[in-house]
Specification:
The protein is α+β, with helices and mostly antiparallel strands and 149 residues long. The chain is 28% helix and 21% strand. Strand 3 and strand 4 form a beta hairpin. The mean pLDDT is 92. Pfam families: DUF1801.
């Protein structure tokens, strides 16, 4: 059994301000992504949303998916969603690259179609990566906390 990776304290501090339903959904979805690709690096941001970006390296450009936590919902986003295989047409959005799957319950993402979509995004990121990485399973916080010592 794999040990669950702890959530970075900076991220957890901000996550705890969200509604419990969103916290639970984020935690389960994060765990699911890490089950699919345990070597993921997590790059953490707090901009318009509290976001964990999953990357095959320590670079944002090598990201394969992200979990933005908004005020009222969580999305499963794909940084290069327009470029990955989506045979079941699960992805929504109108951006040049980014697409997402709205998530409301674990049943909505803990399934073979979403798993295949995440794997497709990982495969694309690996093929698209400029050079191999030595960063495996790291957590990189870009969050500037001001509310705690």
């Amino acid at each position: 059994m794999n040990k669950v990776r702890k959530i970075h304290p900076d991220f957890l501090y901000l996550l705890e301000f969200k509604e419990q339903k969103l916290i639970d959904l984020f935690k389960d979805l994060r765990e699911y992504i890490l089950e699919i690709y345990p070597d993921s690096n997590e790059i953490l941001y707090h901009t318009h949303a509290l976001t964990t970006v999953f990357s095959i390296s320590d670079k944002l450009s090598d990201a394969f998916c992200m979990l933005p936590v908004y005020t009222n919902h969580v999305n499963l986003g794909f940084a290069k969603g327009t470029l990955i295989k989506d045979p079941h047409q699960l992805l929504t959005g109108t951006g040049n690259l980014i697409r997402h799957v709205p998530v409301e319950t674990p049943k909505g993402y803990r399934n073979a179609k979403i798993k295949a979509l995440v794997k497709s995004a990982v495969d694309f990121a690996i093929q698209d990566m400029e050079k191999p990485t030595e960063s495996i399973g790291k957590v990189i916080s870009k969050i500037k906390t001001t509310g705690k010592e």
